Amino acid sequence: MTFTFGLVHAPLTPFAGGRIDTRTYGKVLDFHIAQGAEALALPMHAGESVSLTAVERQDLLAFAIRHVAGRVPVIAHVSEAGTAIAASLAAHAKAAGAAALIASVPYYWTPPQHMLVEHFAAIGSAGGLPFFVLNTPSEMADVEFAGKSVVELIGKLPNFAGLIDTSLDWQYMIEVVTVARAERPDFQFVSGTEYMISASAIGATGLLSPLASIAPRLVSNLYRACRAEDYGAARPMQEDAAILFRLMRDAGVPGLKAGAAAQGRDCGDPRAPLAAWRDGGALQTAMAQARSFAAEPRGWA
Amino acid sequence: MTLVLKGVMQSPVTPLKADFSPDYGTFEKLVDFHVRTGATAISWPHHKAESHNLTIAERKALAEVAIKAVAKRVPISIHVSALALEDTFDLARHAQDKGADAIIAITPYFWKYPPEAIYDYFVTLGTSFDLPLIAYNSPSYLDGIEFTGELTARLIQRLPNFIGMKEASFNSEKYFEILRAALPLRQNFAMIAGVEYLLPSISLGGAGSYSSAGAICPNLCVELYESCASGQWDRARAAQYKLSQLWQLFRDQYPSSLKGGCVIMGRPVGPTRPPLPTASPERIKFIEKRLAELGILDSEPHGW
Q: Is A171 close to B244, i.e. CB distance below 8 A?
C-alpha cells in the first residue's frame, strides 16, 4: 500500500441555493484532471471542508470518487476537532475508495504534542490508507507537529506516509525531512503552498495546490521545473505564484472563488460565515502583476 | 561601491580569557583560521560574537584586530548595532576610519516603531558614511519588527551604498518578498541567509549566508555552498541536512554550545560572558558525541 504524492490539486466546492452544486462539481473535477492534476485532494480548506456537515463531506467524497472513476486517485481530507469523529471520516473514506488520507492537527484545541501523536495514530489506523499529516500552524493557532512527534508517529503508524507543510519555515522543514527520513527513508515531504522552489530544494517531491483553481498552468509549470531542479527557470514562475499566493492568503476561499469566477468558472458564493469577495480591484491588480496569468485557461475547457 | 558579497561568510565568535577579558591573540588566530578555510568575507561582531556583552571600547579594539588579521584578503564588515543609536554611529565612524569594507546594522533594538522609522534610520546611517551598508532583518528576535519588500526597494532607490541584507527569518515568503523587490533594482544586491540555510535560499536566488558552524566545520560550509552554486542538489541536500542538525545543536544557548564545540575541535576560544552560560563539561561531552555521529571529527580540521 503505497501512494506517491505528486502534483495534487485542491478543488473548490461549488454551492447553489445553499447546497452543494454537484453538477458544477463534476465540471470542477474534470477541469482539474484536464489541467494535469495527478491526484485530487478534497474537500481541503480551499474546498470549505470546515463548512460542510459530516454527511455532506461523505457524500461529496463518494460523488467525486464515482465521477472521477479512476482517472486519477482521490485523496480524502478528514481533519476534525474530535479524534473519534476524524477517525470515522477516515474509515468512511477508505470504504468509499479513497487512495490516501490527509489530516491536520485538531481544530480549536491546542493539545500537547503527545496527544497530537495519538490523534493522528487513531485516524491513520482507522483509515488504513497511506496517511499524510497536514502541518499548517498559521491556520491552527500556531500548533505545529514537531519533528520529534513525526518520529514518534512513524514508530506507531506503519501507513504514515508523509507530511504536507505550509509553514514556509526552513528550520522546521529541514528538521522534519532529516529526522523522518532517518527513520523511514521513503517518508514523503510535500509542499502545501506554491513556494515550491525552496521546498523542492529541501526535498519536497509533492505539491498540494489551492492556487490550481485559478492558475493551473503556472502551478504545473512551476512544479515541473522544480521537480527537474531547474530553479533558474522556475524563478519567474515562483514570482507569479508568490503574487497570487499573497493575495489569496489574505483573501482566502472567497478570493479563490472570485478568481475562478473571473476566469469563467463560477462556483457560487462561499458559505457563511465567509462572504463573497468584493475587492475586484485587488484581484485584477494581482492577475495583471503575475505576468504569466494571461495564459491561464478560461472557462471549463 | 563595487563590493559584491557571496558564498559562506564567517562571523567569528569573540574569544575570551578565563577571566572573561578579550583574548586578542586567539581572536587574531580565529579570524585567520576563517580566512584560510574558505570564508568569502568576515563580519564581526554578530550576536554570536556576544556583541551586546562587549563595551563600545572593546568592540572598537577588537574590530581593529579583526581588520588587521584579515589583511585585505577578503572583505570585512563591522556590525555596528548597539542598544543606543549614538553608539551605533560611533562604531560606524570608527569602522570607516580603521579601514573596514562595509558596515552591517539590524533594525533598532527593543522599541516598537512603524516601518517609516526603519526607513529613516537606515537613510541616516547610509548617508552618514561612505561605506557599503548591509541591513539585518531578524523578525523573530525583534518581535515582528521587519523589512518588507517595499521598504527594501525604497531604501535601495535612496541609498547607492545599500548592497545587501542579512535575512534571518528562515521563511520562504518573507525572504522571497525582499529578494524579488531588491534584485530588479540592484542586480548584485546580496541576499544573505542568517546562518547556513543555503539550500532554500540559493535556490530562490540568494547570494550566500553568514555562518554559525564555520569555526567547527569550514569544509562542510564550503561543500554546501559549492554544491548549491553548481546546482548539484543531491550533494547540497546531504550537506544541508548535516549543517541544519549542527544549527539545532548550537542554537541552544547560542553561542555557548558553539564555543564548547570549539574546544573539541582543538581551537578553544574560552568562556561565554553572563548572562549567557558557558558550556559545562557535560554539555561539551554531548556536543562531542553529536559531532562524532555527524562525521565532523573525521572530515574537519583539528587545531589552528
A: yes
Q: Is B196 near chain A, with CB under 8 Å?
A: no
Per the structure block, which three cell numbers stand in for A263?
476566469
Residue with cell 537613510: B123
The grid coordinates of residue A218 equal 503556472
Residues in chain A, how many?
Answer: 301
Peptide bond before residue B139 is cis, with ω within 30 degrees of 0: no
Beta carbons of A175 and B237 less than 8 Å apart: no
Please name the helix (run of DSSP H) or strand (run of DSSP E) that holds residue A100, with its range, or none. Answer: strand A100-104
Whether the pLDDT of residue A301 is over 80: the answer is no
CA B288 to chain centre: 24
Helix pair A280-289, A231-262: axis angle to 10 deg: 150
Cell numbers at residue B60, please?
Answer: 572598537
Per-residue pLDDT tens for B13-35?
999 999 999 999 999 999 999 99
Q: Rounded CA gap, B304 and B301, in Å?
A: 8
User: What contacts A108, CB < 8 A, 6 or more positions away?
Assistant: A81
Residues 6+ apart with CB under 8 A from B125: B88, B89, B92, B103, B105, B133
Give ipTM to 2 decimals. Answer: 0.91
Q: What is the pLDDT of residues A170-185, one digit of tens each?
A: 999 999 999 999 999 9
Q: Number of A:B CB contacts under 8 A?
A: 77
The residues, any chain, with a CB within 8 Å of residue B68's CB and separated by 6 or more, are B28
Is A42:A77 a contact under the CB 8 Å cutoff? Answer: yes
Q: Which residue of A144, A151, A170, A194 is the best one to mutate when testing the B interface, meaning the one whose CB has the most B CBs within 10 A?
A: A170
Chain A partners within 8 Å of B170 (Cβ): 169-171
**pLDDT at A269 exceeding the cut of 60:** yes
Of the pLDDT bands very low, low, confident and very high (cuts 50, 70, 90), residue B253 is: confident
Phi, psi of A142 (to 5 degrees): 70, 10
Q: CA-to-CA distance for B35 and B43, rounded, in angstroms? A: 11
For residue A1, pLDDT over 90 is answered with no
What is the Cα B3 distance to its own chain's centre? 17
Q: Within an 8 Å CB–CB cutoff, is residue B201 touching chain A?
A: yes
Reading the block at residue B20, the C-alpha cell is 572573561
**B133, HSE (Cβ side, Cα atoms, 13 Å):** 28
Q: Which three cell numbers stand for residue A77?
A: 481530507
Residues of A in contact with B231 (CB under 8 A): 229, 231
